[in-house]
Automatic annotation (TrEMBL):
It catalyses: (4aS,6R)-4a-hydroxy-L-erythro-5,6,7,8-tetrahydrobiopterin = (6R)-L-erythro-6,7-dihydrobiopterin + H2O. This is Putative pterin-4-alpha-carbinolamine dehydratase. The lineage of its organism: Bacteria, Pseudomonadati, Pseudomonadota, Alphaproteobacteria, Rhodospirillales. Keywords: Lyase. Its EC number is 4.2.1.96. Belongs to the pterin-4-alpha-carbinolamine dehydratase family. The keyword Lyase applies. The keyword Transferase does not apply. It comes from the Bacteria.
Length: 102
């Protein structure tokens, strides 16, 4: 079982993800992505799905056209763990290849 992130480890991990915010009302992080169009957004989701399934760690997300709202939390731990940080970093790396990401 992955440990919940606390203290300086948590601060350091969050500082490395400037485009993510703490969610309201629960121990999770969120970020909105925007892409050029639906196809690009969905290709991103497909790429993330491969990584997430390999990690056995899955995003909560909501897609409309070119926008994706993502929330990451470790349900088994009841809060943020390094699994969320690792997935967020990998999602940002994938999205960085897309010029219209915001
Ligand atoms: C049985 C399976 O390994 C677990 O349910 C995994 C699947 N994906 C998961 N994803 C997330 N975000 N949190 C979890 O705790 C989690 N647990």
């Amino acid at each position: 079982m992955m440990e919940k992130l606390t203290g300086p480890d948590r601060d350091r991990a969050l500082a490395g993800l400037p485009d993510w915010s703490l969610a309201e009302g629960r121990d999770a992080i969120t970020r909105k992505y925007r892409f050029a169009d639906f196809k690009t957004a969905f290709a991103f989701m497909t790429a993330v799905a491969e990584i997430a399934d390999e990690m056995d760690h899955h995003p909560e997300w909501f897609n409309v056209y070119n926008r994706i709202d993502v929330t990451l939390s470790t349900h088994d731990a009841g809060g943020l763990t390094m699994l969320d940080i690792d997935l967020a970093v990998q999602m940002d790396e994938l999205a960085a290849g897309e010029p219209e990401t915001a």
